Amino acid sequence: xxxxxxxxxxxxxxxxxxxxxxxxxxxxxxxxxxxxxxxxxxxxxxxxxxxxxxxxxxxxxxxxxxxxxxxxxxxxxxxxxxxxxxxxxxxxxxxxxxxxxxxxxxxxxxxxxxxxxxxxxxxxxxxxxxxxxxxxxxxxxxxxxxxxxxxxxxxxxxxxxxxxxxxxxxxxxxxxxxxxxxxxxxxxxxxxxxxxxxxxxxxxxxxxxxxxxxxxxxxxxxxxxxxxxxxxxxxxxxxxxxxxxxxxxxxxxxxxxxxxxxxxxxxxxxxxxxxxxxxxxxxxxxxxxxxxxxxxxxxxxxxxxxxxxxxxxxxxxxxxxxxxxxxxxxxxxxxxxxxxxxx
Amino acid sequence: xxxxxxxxxxxxxxxxxxxxxxxxxxxxxxxxxxxxxxxxxxxxxxxxxxxxxxxxxxxxxxxxxxxxxxxxxxxxxxxxxxxxxxxxxxxxxxxxxxxxxxxxxxxxxxxxxxxxxxxxxxxxxxxxxxxxxxxxxxxxxxxxxxxxxxxxxxxxxxxxxxxxxxxxxxxxxxxxxxxxxxxxxxxxxxxxxxxxxxxxxxxxxxxxxxxxxxxxxxxxxxxxxxxxxxxxxxxxxxxxxxxxxxxxxxxxxxxxxxxxxxxxxxxxxxxxxxxxxxxxxxxxxxxxxxxxxxxxxxxxxxxxxxxxxxxxxxxxxxxxxxxxxxxxxxxxxxxxxxxxxxx
Lengths: 343, 343
Known about the structure:
The structure is a homodimer. By secondary structure, the first copy, chain A, is of the alpha/beta class. The first copy, chain A, folds into two domains: 10-175, 3-Layer(aba) Sandwich (Peroxisomal Thiolase, Chain A, domain 1), CATH 3.40.47; 182-334, Peroxisomal Thiolase, Chain A, domain 1 (3-Layer(aba) Sandwich), CATH 3.40.47.40. Helices cover 33% and strands 23% of the residues of chain A. Chain A has helices spanning 27-30, 52-70, 91-96, 113-127, 141-148, 202-221, 237-250, 262-265, 281-298, 315-319, and strands at residues 2-6, 9-12, 17-25, 40-41, 80-85, 104-106, 132-139, 164-165, 168-175, 182-187, 230-233, 259-261, 278-279, 303-311, 326-334. In chain A, the strands form three sheets. A seven-stranded mixed sheet of chain A has the order 1-2-10-15-14-11-12, sandwiched between helices. The longest helix of chain A is centred in the middle third of the chain and has 20 residues, at 202-221. Chain A is globular, with a radius of gyration of 18 Å. The mean pLDDT of chain A is 97.
């Protein structure tokens, strides 16, 4: 059952369970501080395929198969799959899932896709449309660079506020019952645009959307940041994460003690030359499906607010002089031992 | 409440109602056989804006505002909005919905987006996540041509199997109660790829997905094609529609008497030079939100199976030699007077 809390916020009265997850990463991710939390790492940027685009779908297939295998599930056990990615026409998701006999609902939420998928998988399970549902997303640094920016061979200079697209894929399998971290509720994001036009500063473009969603989430459920062990945003990076905290400080709310950003967690910014941090659909997906869900299963994190952030721009919108709309979807995930947190 | 019928098919026990809809079209649509069914037609391909891309989002805004006004609803009455389009990074949807305070879940289902959105809006209302939800999508011939194929000035020749992207936007507003056509159930599509590689023959690429979904829908609900007054596919065009009927004939099932395709309905193929018919997210959206829902409200159609079809390719996947995955989502919509059709 689902309880509407107003303005895009809903509470799952019978919380869906994250039964399983799998995180796949590439070379730079293997050299980063969260390397141990990945299930599969491969230093070949093509993952044994002929192109970066094919590598990205290969990562999705590895993540899906890995997550299913942990629970001895088959493709036919999935009632619904929610999937999307950054490549034009979401080809990573369509091609990775073709001819598998899985009902697929395609998403586009830019880098918020994992959180958007969790909202929808949670709704579909809590609402009765599915018993088991998957969420799958990915990004690939080299495929993204040539689609959104320049061919790598061009050797373009990156600005200090630029972020590094994570090469990785995350898959989460949710069920109506079982053992594992549970989804307590979520807040679906509004599209917020504060007028940032610098396509190399997406953290700044997304921070107002993150603020809007987290604030609405806290209001809807009568919570404060310190009610969580951890609030993570997807890929605001250094710049966006700092801006988000400034926005909260204007309300007299201090978030520093519980707040982190997946984009600043996944790489070592001192040694890995990623400028403002990681980004991409894969960023929050692998940090959740690898690191955070492991911590939730272990109980070292008990109450997590997972906030996927997306910059809804395109090269064409930027060329036409538009500013960058942002979106953020927030999902409350608690460890299995948390039985009494009614929200 | 929702009843799972297996393999992506679900039944809405308390059927969500389509409270309102609005169809917006351009010049060619205004000259076509369904012109009278549109709410708004504009022969300016830029809709008063500075670019075709901005025109597409203007059409979405007109469709959304038009659908809301018919029910005297405001943006704040929408619990959730499901929106997507064909332009890279779905900019039509993100920009048309920015700063409106509506919780937005972005979709990518290629030309199946209206049907995908109806499935999800239906699930969210029947499952309790929303009381009122919208579905919004669009396409624009000129914006699509330059993104997917060639700049219009290039004057590229079109093959006989090519289709003409509809310039239009459709919006449907669904509610948990009220007067109007009702959603009885739906079947979410699998991604099916039979190896078609001709990006100028998307009807052939999508027909197997349409067959797969319609067959699964009929099986799940123990229905036959003649149980419907009308089965429509989204944009198979002449070629795909013929192929779909051939696929059914192999099973000994004759669909000719109840089957039509939105891509063949929206244009007069004798006089409008659209080759195999219309296509694009806007195609099935405007035929549904204009023509078909009017007929359902009038009662001249009582039982409709609305099957959105999508070709999940990108220019990059085609350049890399890939075949074209297709998807189809099917939704049963009945007129208000149909009270006893239990499915």
